[in-house]
Specification:
This protein is α/β, with parallel strands linked by helices and about 200 residues long. It has one domain: Maf protein. Helices cover about 35% and strands about 30% of the residues. The strands form two sheets. Strands 2, 3, 4, 5, 6, 7 and 8 form a seven-stranded mixed β-sheet that branches. A two-stranded parallel sheet has the order 1-9. β2 (about 10), α1 (about 15-25) and β3 form a beta-alpha-beta unit. The chain is elongated and about 55 Å long.
């Protein structure tokens, strides 16, 4: 028999507004935790192994402090392009450079979700292919100046200006590109014997 998620205290260790929105739309009540974590990783890691590693790493500051029936969610998202990971840009110049490189090309987005509850942990990930059309320099400059590019892997949000004008199509989960693959999250809960 599955336990309903409402019988757990859900803790989300993420400041991502997109993740907050998706959990809200799933009617899940949660508290937000904030802890700076070193997001470095080995060069040997590739694709979803990076996001799996980092989503688990983000759980470590909280793991031993969790009480019974506290359910911790930690996440990570990267853009994978030309055999390397694009994380969050460190400057507006780097953000513009990332967008120029993604223009007129396909890249992959990997997101991982780590669920920790009652001493058990499960990590699930997803992959989405994103196809950008040709972006003009004026469009990139407008986007970088007027949108929150610093908080986004690959320097873009699929749900706003650059996504609307630039993305031709995706193959896979839209929510994965937002940073929270909801179907994989539900699968993870099922593995923990938890329903929504």
């Amino acid at each position: 028999m599955q336990n309903h998620i409402s019988s757990y205290k859900v803790l989300l260790a993420s400041l991502s507004k997109r993740r907050h929105l998706l959990l809200n739309e799933m009617k899940i009540k949660y508290e937000i935790l904030n802890q700076e974590v070193d997001e470095s990783f080995s060069d040997k890691l590739k694709k979803s192994s990076i996001t799996d590693f980092l989503s688990k790493k983000k759980s470590e500051p909280f793991y031993r402090k969790l009480k019974k029936n506290q359910l911790l969610i930690t996440c990570d998202t990267i853009v994978w392009f030309k055999n390397k990971a694009l994380g969050k840009p460190l400057s507006l110049i780097e953000a513009a450079s990332m967008l120029k490189s993604l223009s007129n090309a396909m890249h992959k987005v990997y997101s991982s979700i780590c669920i920790t509850v009652n001493g058990k942990q499960v990590i699930l990930n997803d992959e989405t292919k994103v196809y950008f059309g040709k972006l003009k320099n004026s469009q990139i400059n407008h986007y970088v100046k007027n949108y929150d590019v610093m908080d986004r892997a690959g320097a873009y949000g699929i749900q706003d200006y650059i996504g609307h004008i630039g993305i031709e199509r995706i193959e896979g989960s839209y929510n994965n590109v937002l940073g929270f693959p909801t179907r994989r999250f539900i699968e993870g809960l099922k593995k923990m014997n938890i329903s929504i």
